[in-house]
Every structure is written in C-alpha cells, then in structure tokens.
Design goal:
heterodimer, A: 340 residues, mainly alpha, MetI-like fold, 15 helices, B: 303 residues, 11 helices
Chain lengths: 340, 303
C-alpha cells in the first residue's frame, strides 16, 4: 500500500513539473512581448528595455523558468500590471467569492443527485427513470454560461424574483465582517440576517448554473451504480433476512453506490473551475474566474500564469488524493491494480 | 504469378464492401429501433442541413446591419428575431452551426490522428520512449481541459484558430491513452504472435494487424470529443478568447445575448444556446449508444 501511494505521489509530482513546463512554454514562447504590452506602443526603446529587465524577460529561458516555478511555490506570484497589485493579494481577495460559489454548487449538486438517483432507481418506474435520464443528458449538454443567461432572463428579468447580474450583494449592502470570506457564513456569524438573505438570493442562480452539469454527472454515475448494486446477490440476502426495501437501500445499496463517485471528484473539480470562469462572467461575480477573463483580455500575464498553474496544481492534488483515498476505502483496488 | 494476389485482393475488396453494406444496414436498423438514438440522429442531421444549405436557402447576410430593424422579436420575416444592430439571428445561427460543426469535425480528426499516433507509437516502442510520451500526456492531463485551451489562446493570440489548436491539444492525451492501452491489449493476442512467427516485421504488424483494431475505440471516443469540442469552442468564444465579436459563432452570439439581457432581447442569446444544447446532447446520446454497442474500457473526455 505504501508503495502504491508513493508511486502515485511521484507520478503526481512529475505531472505537476511537466504541466508547469508546458504552461511556461505556451505562455512565454508565443508571439508577443509581455514587456511591450506593459509599456504600450508609444514607449521609447530605453523604457522598453528597463521594463524587460524588471520583468526578467531578457534572461535565458532556464533562469526565467526557475524564477517562475520557485516564485510560484514560495507564494510570490508576481505583479499584476493591469491592476497595480500583487497577484497574491488579488487572488486572496477573489478566491473566497469563487469558493463560495463552487462549494454551494458542489453540495447542491451532490444532495440533489442523491435524491434524483434514488427516485429514478428505487421503484423502477420507467417513466420516472426515463425523465431523470433525459434530465442528465440535458445537464451534460447545457453550456453553463447559456444556462446562466436563461436563468437571468426568466427569474430576474421576467419574474423579478431574484436579483440580476450585480455580483454577491445588492449595491446598497455592506459586506459582512471578514472571517471566512464566504458572505453567507460571515453574515450568519455576525448575525446580520438581512445580509445573509441577500447573499443567499444572489447565490441561487449562479450556483444553479454552475452546479447543473455536475449534478447531471453525479446522477448518471449514482444511477448506474445503484442499478448495478441492486442486482448483487447480497441485496437479495439482505431482503430475504426481512429488511424492508428502504432499509436495504439506504443501509446496503447507497454506501456502496457512493464509492465509485469518489473517482468522479477530479472531473467535477475540473468542471467547477472551468465553469466558474464562464458563470462568473454572466453574473458579474467578483471571483477568480472573472479576474482571469479580465486579465486575459487586458493581457495581464502574471495573473493568468498564476491561475493556470494554480488550477493544474489543485487539479493534480485532487486527483491524487482521490486515488489514494479510493485505495484506502476500497480494499479491492489495493489487491488488484489494473494492468497498463 | 501476378494473377493470384490480384484476384485475392479483389475478392477481399468485394468482401470488405459487402461487410460495409451489411454494417450500414445493421446500423440503420439499430437507429430506427431506438427512439432516443433516432431523435439524436435526426436533430444532428437537421443542424447539419442548416449549416450546409441553411444560408443558401435563407437569403439573409449574417453580417448585414439594418438599423431600421433592430431588436425585432421572432416573426415570419426573422424567425429568430434580429439583434441590437439589426442583423438576422437566424442567418447568424446557421453560420454558427457551420462554424461549430466544422470545428468539431476538425478537432475530432486532428485529435484522433495526433493522439492516436502518439498512443500507437508509445505502445509499439515501449520502454523509455513509451515512458516519455506518456509522462508528457500526463502533464497535459494535469490541466483542467478548458484551462489548457485558454492558456494556448493566451500564449499564441486570441482567435478562433488558436482556440481550435488549444482544444485539439486538450483532446490528444485522451486519445493517446486509449489507443496505447488498446495497442498493449491487442499486441498480446495470439494472432500477433502468429504474424511474428511468420516473419512479419514490427512496423508491418502494427499497421496491418494492430491499428485496425483501434477503429471502434477511436470512433466512440470521437463521438464524445465532438460534443466536448463544440462546447469548448463556444465557451472560449463566450469569454472572448475564441471567435471574435462580429463572427457569428454560437459562443460569441451568447455574449451578445448577455449584453441584451436587460433590454429584453432574449432571442439573441437563447437560440444559439439551443443550437449548442441540441448539438452536444445529440452527439452525447450517439456516443453513449455507440459505447453500449462496442463497450470499450477507458476514460472519456468531458468538459
């Protein structure tokens, strides 16, 4: 087991190293001079040279790469010329907003997915099962940014039930005192009910737009697993011992069905990162995704480089942890590792 | 002396043709007996029809500005309405279908070719070459797919071409992994041993005996990749990294729709999204059924 884990960790480290190299090469070898973007087209050659030296783009590639990677791991993520701030502070400001969105989307997707998968498989009604399956296909095919647009049109513009694309709070409200950076949690801690209610209302649409695809993916996985497991002999045994249908389902089928969804965590994570970039733009959500899109269009490279490496890093960590965890939870994986 | 082999290849050719005909009939029967698959095929056919002949039949220029006809709701004259500078949304929708489906096809073909080649070479060579290739693929897999494609557009300039290259790059490792594992599986089968015993060279065995076995894997993966590519290109266009604004690409059209949300011009953004939804859902249903039929193992690329 230790050897499997170690192998996996070495593999992850190699992947992160390769990814950083690829990101570096893609971003630095492309046409366009980052220093020229900073100084603008009217700068004198001397000014350009000064900025090039300051940014270090005239040094050999290996030195640049070393600076890039060591800076990343020591938390020095460079300076954003677009906003005049350190990337580290910029990210720190933005991450809680994205985290709040992603967290609720993930939780919502998971809870609803369990309910829907149960409804689809519990009584085996073809109509119910069919509509849940259709829903999952729609969920996987719906572009999250378009879903956001649709939700805005219906619930904000037409019905006026929920706020429009104005970010995390209504413009006339102050953000709650900072503890976690998650407005709903902070407002609860401070006992500001109005702020909590407002933050919640602002969350509903973006969370739905972001979580729908993840929900569909979870349902698909859970449904297939539940169907597989309900054909297993041990469930027949459990029923014949006299356990009710529901008891056998929730005690014996569900926990086993959750197991394989663990492997989907990496995929869901990637989906949430990519989705947040798209959905935040729709709702003017002041998160990392919005920051990155703005930075790309402003050619603010330091922010983009950091985000790309950060997301690759986080993605590899999630995948590795899931792999290792899966081995811990499911002994079969430990005993039998697949060829290839 | 020449007659023998030639006659043999001719017999072989007719047999192959007969096999193809039989397979087509079987596939058609399969499609007809499965309502979901039938719907998906019809929808995809319809989108293809709009993409190819839609704007030949519909005499509107997708980029013609008409300031007397701005923000018209859908009507007989403009089935999908007009946008904020009076362009016909239906004509732009058709053009968008053309762009999306073409790029989806390009991504699938190039991704399968490059990724397949990497997988086959890695699987065939083995050893350190295999290791080097697959570690590179792992590094590409370390990025969330859309983020890698974004990085490419950032490094090499924003636009439809670089966005397509970026999306192709994200599909390569998935193809490579699947093909490599298939090569390894097939390589250990006894007919390969037989070919080796008959004195066939390694390259020949690869091309003649192993690569044909990848067809079903490649086809199924491609069906899934197609939907992913269409969605990814639209997503990049939406955030301004893919197709640029006047281009009637579905993603950029949704951006324009977003700008008109508060003025109530719902039709500008909603229709291209429906196009995306239909294209992606139809291909994912087809991919799903294809997987049921051929049942290969492996991870599939998702958005």
């Amino acid at each position: 087991m230790t050897r499997v884990v170690l192998n996996r960790l070495v593999g992850a480290a190699v992947a992160v190293f390769g990814a950083s190299l690829i990101a570096f090469l893609i971003l630095r070898l492309g046409p366009g001079d980052p220093a020229r973007l900073v100084v603008g087209p009217l700068a004198t050659p001397a000014q350009l040279k000064a900025v090039r030296e300051q940014m270090g783009v005239d040094e050999p590639l290996w030195t640049q790469y070393w600076k890039y990677i060591s800076g990343f791991f020591t938390g020095d993520w460079g300076y954003s010329f677009g906003s005049g701030q350190d990337v580290t502070t910029l990210m720190q400001d933005r991450i809680p907003a994205s985290l709040e969105l992603g967290l609720y989307a993930f939780l919502g997707a998971f809870v609803f997915a369990v309910v829907f998968a149960l409804v689809a498989t519990y009584r085996r009604r073809p109509v119910v099962d069919g509509s849940v399956r259709t829903l999952t296909f729609l969920g996987l095919g719906t572009p999250p940014f378009w879903l956001g647009l649709l939700l805005l049109l219906v619930f904000s513009v037409e019905l006026g039930w929920l706020p429009g694309p104005e970010g995390r709070l209504s413009p006339d409200l102050e953000p709650p005192p900072h503890h976690t950076g998650l407005y709903t949690v902070d407002a609860l801690v401070a006992g500001q009910w109005a702020t909590f209610w407002d933050a919640g209302k602002h969350l509903i649409l973006p969370v739905f737009a972001l979580g729908f695809a993840a929900f569909a993916y979870f349902v698909r996985l859970l449904r297939a697993n539940l169907l597989d497991i309900s054909r297993e002999p041990f469930l027949v045994v459990v029923r014949s011992k006299g356990l009710s249908r529901w008891a056998s389902f929730q005690r014996h089928a569900l926990p086993n069905a959750f197991l394989p969804t663990l492997t989907a965590a990496g995929l869901i994570f990637a989906q949430l990162i990519a989705g947040s970039v798209l959905v935040e733009k729709v709702f003017n959500w002041p998160g990392v995704g919005q920051l990155v899109v703005d930075s790309i269009l402003r050619k603010d490279f330091a922010v983009v480089e950091t985000f790309i490496l950060l997301s690759a890093f986080a993605y590899v960590i999630v995948n590795t942890v899931v792999d290792v965890l899966y081995g811990v939870v499911d002994p079969r994986v430990r005993a039998w590792s697949p060829p290839v | 002396m020449e007659a023998g082999p030639i006659a043999a290849t001719q017999v072989q050719r007719t047999r192959v043709l007969a096999d193809w005909a039989r397979a087509t009939v079987r596939a058609a029967r399969f499609v007809l007996h499965d309502p979901a698959l039938l719907t998906a095929t019809v929808v995809l056919g319809l989108l293809l029809f709009l993409a190819i002949v839609g704007n030949v039949l519909w005499h509107e220029d997708p980029n013609a500005v008409d300031l007397n006809q701005t923000l018209q709701p859908p009507s007989a004259e403009h089935p999908m309405g007009t946008d904020s500078i009076g362009r016909d949304v239906f004509a732009r929708f058709n053009e968008g279908a053309q762009i999306s489906l073409t790029i989806g096809a390009i991504v699938v073909v190039l991704g399968a070719l490059i990724g397949g080649a990497v997988g086959v070479i890695a699987g065939a060579l083995g050893g350190w070459a295999d290791n080097a290739f697959m570690r590179t693929m792992d590094s590409l897999l370390a990025f969330p797919p859309l983020i890698l494609a974004m990085a490419v557009t950032v490094g090499f300039g924003v636009g439809l071409k670089t966005a397509t290259i970026g999306v192709i790059l994200t599909t390569i490792p998935y193809y490579a992994r699947l093909c490599r594992s298939d090569v390894l599986r097939v390589r250990s089968l006894s007919f390969v041993e037989a070919a080796t015993a008959l004195g066939a060279r390694r390259g020949w065995i690869m091309l003649r005996h192993i690569v044909p076995h990848l067809t079903s894997t490649l086809l199924i993966q491609s069906a899934a990749v197609f939907g992913y590519a269409v969605l990814a290109i639209a997503a990049l266009g939406f955030v301004g990294l893919g197709a640029q604004i006047p281009t009637p690409e579905w993603g950029t059209m949704i951006t324009e729709g977003l700008d008109n949300v508060l003025t109530g011009g719902w039709w500008i953004g909603v229709f291209p999204g429906i196009g995306l939804l239909l294209a992606v859902t139809a291909t994912s249903i087809i991919a799903d059924r294809a997987r049921d039929i051929f049942d290969p193992r492996g991870a599939y690329l998702r958005f």
